[in-house]
Design goal:
The chain is mainly alpha-helical. Helices cover 70% and strands 0% of the residues. The protein contains five helices and no strands.
């Protein structure tokens, strides 16, 4: 039986990129905007993973590199990646807000 693969066009790829998690988060958070109050921006810059989570991420990354990641560990690593991306975008906007806020 002949299997036909769907044709991927530039338009299809563009739609996939625009609906990716990273693209949606960027549109929601607007990391290049600089309009958060100084106190809010400074508070956001203090948010981060605690030592236990950083150690867990390191272990998961090492296991992923060696190909020994279980399904549950893979999901956990993906969750860390999602939260990391969210923090990255929020901190970008916070830094931009501090650059544009009056001293």
């Amino acid at each position: 039986m002949l299997r036909v693969e769907p044709c991927v066009t530039k338009q299809t790829m563009s739609a996939q990129l625009e609906s990716s998690e990273a693209a949606i988060l960027s549109r929601v958070i607007l990391p290049d905007a600089g309009d958060w109050p100084q106190a809010a921006a400074e508070a956001i810059l203090r948010i981060g993973f605690n030592e236990t989570d950083r150690e867990r991420m390191t272990i998961l990354l090492e296991r992923a590199k060696s190909g020994d990641l279980s399904i549950e560990e893979s999901e956990a690593l993906e969750h860390y990646r999602h939260i990391g991306k969210l923090l990255e975008l929020m901190k970008s906007r916070a830094r931009r807000s501090l650059q544009t806020s009056p001293a």
